[in-house]
Design brief:
about 280 residues, alpha/beta, Rossmann fold, 6-stranded parallel sheet, 10 helices, about 10% strand
Length: about 280
């Protein structure tokens, strides 16, 4: 066991050294699951909060995810939240999920949700996301104050048209030179074009080989970023043995992806080579 830990630590050190040796001058982030949590996608967060409120069994996961996907598609197709802040967006999400679950008539849930339940779920989800956004603001602010990354931070996110509103709400917008909200581009991750758009939006244009993309999804974030030769960092709460062989292959191909369970851990990695 000690030998295995040593090998894992050695691999991590090699990955960190590889990044430090490169002339990294641009950092692009995902938003959902990266800046508003430590690698927990919103559909998992929503399920956890619903589960606590209504005592769902884990067997309800598939049904709930179908309802979440319905809400997500409806919001994006109809532009329902383009003028809303974080809590307003979450409220619409919760209403649509509840509506879809009610229509299914499932005995675990049908017509159980009251207005108080909807308000409680919305508030609890928003509190969690708000905590991480405020915490991660300190990291972003510190990076933006380093000359190496000054005006070289950005976001590329599959979002609902209100990303800039939420960034303004948490006083984050001024820290990012580039913000790509997929709602306005006609592109979505994992399309490599949206990553290239992000790089081209900097002035001067960012070189993919001198940029890092930080995200929480291997297929939507890490794989397409690697394909255009960006460095990558995955934010994940998984242990190494929980990744599939397919995921491990992606993480280890080309430039190895550094896996962190906490965004704060980029401090030592990136600040060590950044000039205040």
């Amino acid at each position: 066991m000690n030998l295995l830990k040593q090998k894992i630590n050695l691999l991590k050190q090699e990955q960190e050294q590889e990044l430090e040796q490169k002339n990294i001058n641009t950092i692009l982030f995902d938003f959902g699951g990266t800046l508003d949590s430590d690698g927990i996608h919103s559909r998992h967060l929503f399920f956890n909060i619903f589960q606590k409120q209504f005592n769902f069994s884990m067997n309800y996961w598939k049904i709930f995810q179908d309802a979440y996907s319905f809400a997500d598609q409806t919001i994006n197709n109809e532009g329902l939240v383009v003028k809303l802040d974080l809590k307003g967006m979450n409220y619409i999400f919760v209403l649509l999920i509840v509506s879809n679950l009610n229509r299914r008539g499932d005995t675990q849930f049908a017509n159980k949700a009251t207005k108080r339940d909807i308000d409680t779920i919305t508030t609890n989800i928003t509190k969690i996301q708000s905590y991480y956004l405020r915490r991660n603001k300190k990291i972003i602010k510190h990076l933006n104050n380093c000359s190496q990354f000054k005006n070289r931070l950005g976001i590329i996110s599959n979002f609902s048209g209100n990303l800039e509103i939420i960034l303004e709400q948490f006083n984050l917008r001024s820290l990012f030179k580039v913000v790509i909200d997929s709602h306005y581009t006609g592109l979505q991750k994992p399309d490599q074009k949206i990553f290239k758009l992000g790089l081209k939006s900097f002035s001067p244009i960012a070189d993919a080989e001198e940029a890092i993309y930080i995200g929480d999804n291997i297929e939507r974030d890490i794989l397409p970023a690697k394909k255009i030769k960006m460095h990558t960092i995955l934010i994940s709460n998984k242990n190494k043995n929980e990744f599939s062989n397919k995921d491990l292959k992606i993480l280890n191909q080309n430039k190895k992806t550094l896996v962190l369970n906490h965004l704060y851990k980029i401090n030592n990695l990136l600040y060590s080579s950044a000039t205040p």
